[in-house]
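Protein modeling request. Please complete all fields; requests missing the sequence field cannot be processed.
Requester role: graduate student
Desired output: 3D structure, token encoding
Chains: 1
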Amino acid sequence: MAVPKKRHVNQPCVIPGGFTVIDIKFTQNSPAAHQLLVKEHKVRVEKTASRPLDRTLFVLNIPPYCTEDVINRLFVQFGPIESVELKDKPSNPEPAEPKLSKHFIPKQKQGFSVGYIVYTKPSGVTAAKAHPQNVPLIVSTEEHPVKTGLQKWIHQYSQSLVPPDVLQQAVDSFMNDYDQRKEEEAERKKKEAEEQEEDEEGWVKVTKGAKGAKARPHSEAADKRALEKEGKKTKRKELVNFYSWQHRQSQREHIAELRKKFEEDKQKIALLRAQRKFKPY
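Delivered output (281 residues):
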């Protein structure tokens, strides 16, 4: 009888779908382990600089006690990390918007999440996928303890209390950026309106832009003037009293208007007579 070959215990565990299973333990002495599923992020639609295809690791089944800092500390052993992003579910990268202060970011849902880890080099993704399952990653250590239970709630409450001067500074900084963006937008709209302004004969001056530049979109004011001009042309072209039924309808409307005016005049005369007070004796 042939002796079965000994299985290599230090090999990664790859499951259907291309995911590699990585075990994590909350502490070194925890009897149970939690499984994370990782694979290289290969969504061709997301060709953005925030998630490069060859340097992004996609992580599933992240437990609630693993924050972005914890995930960074666990996976930095595979290579230098550029950024860590946790989401409630897989989604496209959010468009670039003005960065809000940490005091105004809404509270995220507590639950399992997915993560996008961007390494500085593609070797980090390869090393994470080659990690053996029998070597778990430790979440809470003596150097980096993770608070749970009552200690976690006390820490979250203390972090939610913001000093008034710090909050005022964050508000002032946000409002200054907001005012600056509004001024730039108003200046841009004013410049577009000037460029699209028509002369006395209705002509718009078109200037040559840079090579490969897109055509400037029409401003709201120019579009409004074009619609008004088109409405006037349509009104001039409309045939009035061309058909016999149109002629009869216009006559009825004219008679009704005359009767209405006659009744209003009668009421005015009656009111003037009531207000007249002439007493010669």
